[in-house]
User: Fold these one by one.
Assistant:
Number 1:
Amino acid sequence: MVIKNVRDFVYQLTGNYYSEDRLHSLKQKAAQMLKDKGIISSVNEVDGKLEVLLRDKELADELISYITINETSFFRHIDQINTFKDHFLKDILKNPTGKVLSAGCSTGEEPYTLAMISLSIQPTLRNKRIFGIDISTRALNVAKKGEYPARYERYIPKEYKKYVEIDGRTLKIKDEVKKIVDFHKGNLVASQCMYKGQFSAVFFRNVLIYFTEEKKRKALENLHKSLKKDGVLVLAPTETVGIKNQDLFEPFKIGRFVFFRKK
Ligand SMILES: C[S@@+](CC[C@H](N)C(=O)[O-])C[C@H]1O[C@@H](n2cnc3c(N)ncnc32)[C@H](O)[C@@H]1O
């Protein structure tokens, strides 16, 4: 078993592609995971042990948590978020079935950001309005717990600090925010779409950079299905669906930001 088999397995399962120059890093992550699990005692013993990864479902799932890049933060791309708030979120929340998905939600900062803003618009919200899905079990466990290092408070604008509490070195998301957020494990490039026609908007920011064109298409097809008629797709400010996918989404501009309408 060579690392290229692991690369192909990871790619088929998650859409995340490790090119030749990143294979070494993939091997290191796999070795670290096997060491943390006590399967090898030193990362140098990884050769010959890689095959156990692909045979054991639990280990393969654990590997996904090690190889995905979970970088995120509260109120990331804040100007884009504020544009979304003014032009879409206020209307979405007026509809009792209006829901927003954070696809590739990582450790939860993006969905909690959307939830804090939603509550600032409609303080009486009680039902689930913001959904987060991710393929990484480890990232989702952090998200569900809603506890972060206290230093993350600096990313939260003054008017939203009332939705979190600082307890020693921990920042805790308050229950009223957690109540309107739901997290699920999900694979954006799976053959079957998890949600059909449910969301008024889908955030899909800083995820597709890790996908090949083929898997990007698959994820966009799934997200297209998960949106309601005329629903809006939100990518990171520097990302685009690409010309090949404009049969699914129509780009349009608000101020300096491009959003994508479901066709
Ligand atoms: C860099 S984070 C982006 C987090 C957040 N959207 C943001 O912009 O701050 C990318 C996330 O996508 C997730 N991801 C990667 N491939 C995925 C897949 N096939 N299905 C679901 N989530 C995936 C990773 O686990 C990771 O948490």
Number 2:
Amino acid sequence: MENTVSFGVIGCGLMGREFASASLRWLHLKGDLPRPRIIAACDTNEENLNWFRKDPDTKFFYRDYRDMLKNPQIEAVYVAVPHFLHARVYGDVIRAGKHLLGEKPFGMDQKAFEEIEKAMAERPDVFVRCTSEFPYYPAVQQMIAWFREGKFGRIIEAKFSIRHSSDMDLSKPINWKRTLAANGAYGCMGDLGIHVQHLPFRLGLMPRTVNAVLANLVKERRDAQTGEMRPCETWDNAILLCEGESPAGDRFPMTFEMKRMAPGCGNTVEYEIYGMELSAGFSTDDPNALRYTVSRGQEQAWARLPVGQKTLYPVITGGIFEFGFSDALLQMFAAYISELKGLPCAFPCFTPREAKKSHELLTAALMANEEGKTVRLSQDAPGR
Ligand SMILES: NC(=O)c1ccc[n+]([C@@H]2O[C@H](COP(=O)([O-])OP(=O)(O)OC[C@H]3O[C@@H](n4cnc5c(N)ncnc54)[C@H](O)[C@@H]3O)[C@@H](O)[C@H]2O)c1
């Protein structure tokens, strides 16, 4: 009989569907990791809910997630709903005793995160993780391996960025990400922050201080329903300049860029770590490769190393073929299932402790921007 984990999905939009697609592509993974079987779907939007009728595993359909949580057949729940709902829905999932894979930013703000934390304290038997897929690109995993082997030497600088450009289209209607009520004060930082934090936090590259420049560049957009202009209340772009510290005690400049208005970008994720002995950079613009340079005295020449499908969880695809976004999601879901089942997991999903640090950083960034000053962060390092 097939070895599976019975899932419910709350939020059948963009990300809910990605999970459904990955769950039906499990054959792609070698080995016998239990497959997530999405037996139940829940959405308040009928059209989005109906999309799940295409999933042969989905037998139960709900409009109210509280009804779904009463279903004893469901072991774990993936939640992909707008940010203002995270605290309530994640808390209810945990209290119902269902394992949770929640979406970023894992609570709309620090207070919302603390509410989720309370639920976790009440149910320590429930396994909880947050999504973040980009570190699962094999080229990023190669960077991680080099870092853990100490190949970078003393860290000089580190940069982590994600840049979108779809909002450059000024005729694009307003969506929930541009409203304070649904996305919170973090704006683009809540939406994009964890994508730039998972890798450094896990490597123990921690911000000690933060300065921030936040920009609201497009102040109103058309409402798709009414055609009227509505105010865009949240930040479009954010640049955080931090003093970072490595596990070896090196102090260095560290930047986090989260932008919804970046000309020419798609969903461009870039990770760069510069060291005295080795420097390396990854970009989703060249997802199959890692750029690196080894320092030889006065000379450093950049090289491009094609990495291909050297995935954390082996796949049927030949090693020479390219790796992409949906492959990264498959690897991330595999990591969640492995950890849930107590199986070996070399690079776990973003943890609640890391989410706590993320909220500390983003809350401090809001203050740094507001007051135009450097804000000092606590010295705990969840990834070390
Ligand atoms: N990991 C990633 O790369 C990634 C990418 C995009 C979005 N996200 C995250 O995923 C989450 C959802 O974003 P999205 O882009 O999928 O949004 P979306 O708008 O496409 O989907 C959200 C869905 O939630 C539904 N919903 C709203 N209220 C609900 C309720 N009370 N009960 C049940 N369903 C409800 C909506 O009808 C919609 O179908 C957010 O936290 C976002 O930050 C993650």
